[in-house]
Design goal:
about 375 residues, alpha/beta, Rossmann fold, 2 domains, seven-stranded parallel beta sheet, six-stranded parallel beta sheet, about 15% strand
């Protein structure tokens, strides 16, 4: 790689620690950016998980970097990421720093290093009832601090852009926000699938954190009125909300039709998508909803909820219902099962729609933004 190529620092904490969501966003974007004339330094407070770090393929222009100084006090890694990293960026000659998960280190603007931040959502402001009140205040402070530091902001959906302008007030202007959608990893295609875990004979699938905001109970309630051989398969981390779902299933004779899978290897996800008859994403609010794109790429029809950005992700040929409409959810799933009228045509039109989220196009837009800022 030409040593004169711009040196970009990337916040890699989520890349090495998060299996889905923000981690997937970062790994996919970095792998796609590696095709451009850039040098990418990925800064993380520790090495994280080997399996996640290894998903960032061996490109000669990508380097992982970790703190040079050893701190011996609680929260030292958090301190390095929020303040101490600036000295490392200056020492390494970084020209632009990209915060991938809504945060920038304090002092980055004063250092003279250009900065851009990707903001995925402001759910903690739009729906604070889903968060601990203390966490809401911390996230709110970080959001406002980041707006003061950032030279430019990437919003991953029109919905998120509107929320930034609404809640950012006089700290942000529309001219400083660029809409750049998320991209989907190339492994989410039918041709990339080599095996199927077959968790159930016939099933509909939901992937994501199993928590109240994801509203999975709506899909579980719909099972009452669907064919008896249809199961609901959930993929996500175990939480207290998981217990509520299993209790409801037991109380309503649905226990044998609910499968909850924790710790699913990333390599198995495409096969789980492809084996399903439909993808269900009943979340109350999202910044984007990348699992919808993954599902469509794997050949599934999508049922999601109205009220946030999910219509942007799924396009006009997915089916949307209100977050509290169990009857509507039942009918939408029924219309998405194999053999339903128009199912294949909707899948094909949805696959045409999501071409706008192609990784090369997304990375190209980010690359152009870097050039403008530099």
């Amino acid at each position: 790689m030409n040593s004169s190529a711009p040196l970009i620092g990337i916040d890699a904490k989520r890349i090495v620690r998060n299996g889905t969501g923000l981690g997937s966003y970062g790994r996919t974007l970095v792998n796609d950016l590696a095709q451009y004339p850039l040098r990418l330094n990925l800064y993380a407070p520790d090495k994280g998980r080997d399996d996640l770090r290894s998903q960032v393929k061996g490109h000669e222009n990508i380097s992982f970097l970790f703190p040079h100084s050893t701190f011996h006090f609680p929260l030292s890694k958090a301190y390095w990421r929020s303040r101490g990293i600036v000295a490392d960026l200056k020492r390494d000659g970084v020209q632009l720093y990209h915060g991938l998960s809504g945060e920038l280190p304090i002092g980055i603007r004063r250092s003279g290093i250009k900065s851009v931040v990707t903001i995925h959502d402001l759910i903690f402001l739009r729906h604070p009832e889903f968060y601990n009140p203390i966490d809401v205040q911390i996230y709110k402070w970080k959001f406002r601090q980041t707006l003061k530091e950032a030279d430019h902001i990437i919003a991953i959906s029109e919905c998120t852009k509107r929320d930034i302008l609404e809640y950012g007030g006089n700290l942000v202007s529309e001219d400083n926000i660029t809409l750049i959608y998320q991209s989907c990893a190339q492994r989410f295609t039918p041709s990339a699938i080599t095996h199927s875990p077959s968790p159930a004979t016939r099933y509909v699938l939901s992937v994501g954190s199993i928590e109240p905001r994801k509203n999975t109970m709506l899909a579980l309630k719909a099972l009452h009125h669907l064919p008896d051989d249809i199961s609901l398969v959930l993929v996500g981390r175990h939480t207290a909300y998981t217990n509520k779902l299993t209790q409801y299933a037991r109380a309503n004779g649905l226990e044998h039709r609910l499968r909850i899978l924790h710790g699913v290897p990333d390599a198995d996800l495409p096969a789980l998508y492809a084996g399903a008859e439909a993808f269900i994403y009943p979340s109350v609010y999202e910044g984007f909803g990348i699992p919808i794109i993954e599902a469509i790429r794997c050949g599934l029809p999508v049922v999601a909820c109205t009220g946030s950005c999910l219509e942007e992700a799924g396009g006009p040929d997915s089916i949307y219902v209100a977050p509290d409409d169990a009857e509507g959810m039942t009918e939408a799933i029924r219309r998405s099962l194999k053999g339903a009228d128009g199912r294949q045509e909707r899948i094909q039109r949805s696959q045409d729609y999501i071409k706008r989220f192609d990784g090369k196009d997304v990375a190209g837009q980010v690359f152009q933004l870097y050039k403008q800022l530099l």
